[in-house]
Structures are given as structure tokens and as C-alpha cells.
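Exam revision sheet. Question 4 asks you to relate a sequence to its structure. Input first:
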Amino acid sequence: MQIKVNAPARLHFGILDLNGNLGRIYGSLGLAIDFPNTVVEVRPSEELEIYGDKKNFTNPKNSKGIFGPEKLQSSFWAQLGRAQFGPIEPKAQSGGKIFVPNKKNFLSGNFCAQSELCSDSGQKLIVSDSGEKEKVFSIIKKFSKFYRVEPKVRITVREAIPEHVGLGSGTQLALAVGVSISGIHNLNLTIKEISNSVRKGNISGIGTCAFESGGFIVDSGCKIDDKGIPQKIFRYDFPDDWKFLIVIPKIRRGFRDSEEKEIFKKVIPAPPEISARICRLTLMKLIPSLMEKDIKKFGGALTGINRNTGLCFRKVQGGIYRGKILQQLINFMLKNSYGAGQSSWGPAVFALTEEENVNGLNSDIKKFLKMKKINADVFVAGANNRGAKIRVYR
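Answer key, C-alpha cells:
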């Protein structure tokens, strides 16, 4: 048995409520996008092995050296305390099939190993794989400790969403690995159960929902006294002919999980009037204009929501957006698109336009970057309206 998971990146547009005086906190808005992606392949093995596309992450220099698979397996269980774990009875069986939110996510065919991150339209995005082994290893430790399962699998990371740039790389990698191990060991876990086991999605549920079903998503946030995984309260297919031009300046990357927790402590409670504006824009303009396919009104609402969210963080990120470069980029984008903003902590920023105009916007942005001497990755992304693709080979 082999399992291949292709998980989508996401744009994070804003947060509904950082005040909390109604008994709930957070509540996020976002969209699953079709590029870039995290691609993970997993198959059974005698030992735990973690590989990259061109590099064995268990030991880049020598796959049989001190960090070879056998040593890694022994070290892995030593860290967890192997004696406390025994066999676990899997949940209700389903013919050996992994849980998947929709049967259309099951595809058949041969593996297509790719050595670079490349979109269907030929766009390329170079991603460093440094630290990939450690990230996968950390995910497996959490998953295995939670479900008391010894993962005897070979994991190969074929593609990886750039980390800490605002595209949700951590959640997608964690879910892709968790879903694959669940399938190999026939645990029949839901996406939310896997998300909980690897501790992803406790502030924003957009990444988990993007993996599960794709599309445009609004989540519920969570109760002040119960920081569980936010639930999906609205999900809608995003128009195929609406595109985002995404720019990732090569500056300091976004915040890590540990830094993020401290930042939220500094900004909560935010002024309730900011939350009121965001919620009104969401309910009375953003969602109706999406359903009516009115890109102009949708873009205006999106810009307003993103800007108001930035107001809450301006003291910790150096302004409404994270620094002068992002401010300059978004100001320029707003003159040439229907809406623009910063995804999550950045440095990824986005501009919304129609498919017929995206090439012109792409050209204009690149000229602007050259004029301002800003080094950045630039690419086009559409919506992913289906979620992760999960292939099972027998």
C-alpha cells in the first residue's frame, strides 16, 4: 500500500473578533489556493524513514550512517518512552480505506515524483528543504504519542509550501503526514481528529478546513474557556476566473508558533469596534458579493477586513502591514486590482483580479519590484475548491 497526499496552501484574510467580550475569540476568513502545495508520499517500511525528494533527511550525507533509519527508529521510541505504549485497537474499520472528506479525493494512477515545486501553468517556486526532517519528525512524535501507534513507514516529502510566509505550511504538512500514517495503519481517523493530535488549528481553522474541503471558508473561532479547533460555519466555492497575484518579498519571515502565542497575549482584547466593522463587512458585503460573483464589492470588503485586522496588530508588526515594504506593495496593488492585503503574518501579500487581467498585473508588479529593488517571488494562484487530493495505491 502507498498513499500520496497533495495538500493546498491557503490565504488567511483576517480575524473576526480579537476582543472576546461575547464569550468567543478569533474566527478566521481564508481561501484554499491551487499553488503552492505540499506533497507527501508514504508507504509501509520495516523502520521509520524520512526522506526528501533528492535528499534522505534521516542522514543527507550517508543513508546508512549514525542517523540511518534503524538508529532513528530506536532514538524515536527512546524519546517517547516506548514502555508506556502498547498495541492500540483501531477505530471502526472501513475496508482498509483512509478517511477522506469526499470520495472524489480518491484518485488512482501512478506516482509522479517531482523534483521542483511547479504549478500546472509552469510557475516555479524554489523552496529550501532545510529542517524538513525535524518538522516531520516532530509531527510524528505528537501523532504517535496521542494515538499510541508505532509508525513503521517511509515518508517522502516531494514538495513543500514555503514555511513562515503566511501560506499555512505547517498545518498542511502535519495533516498530510497524519492522514497518511492513519491510512497505512488503518486507524480511520477524521481530519479534525488528526488536527487535534498534532495540535494544529487551535487559533485558526482555515488550514484544517482548506485541507478537508477547499474553497472560501469562515470559521467559528472558539470559546474563551475552551480553546478547541474552530468549526467551519461557512464554506463556498470560489469563482474559477478570480485570481490572486501573490508576492513574497525575501525579507524576515513570519512568526513561529511560540512567538504567535505571545503576540496574541499583547493584542487581546482588541477594541470591540474593530471587530464590529470586520463582522459587518463579512456578513453584509464580503459573503453576499462572493455569492453574487461581484468581484469589485468582494475586493473592497476583503481589503477592509484585512486592513482592520492589521489595526489590531500594528504595534507588534510595525504598522497595519508588516513593515514598509509590504505597505508599499499593497498600496501599489490597490491601484491595479480589486483588493489587496497581507496573508496571515506575511510576508506574503496578495492582489485580487480577474483571469483576463492577471498577466498585466503580474508584469506591472514585477516592474514595480525592479524599480524599488525588492527581491521577491511572484506567482499566480486560483482557488482550490476540493481540498487535499489523497491517492491510495494497492
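Marking note for examiners. The radius of gyration is 21 Å.
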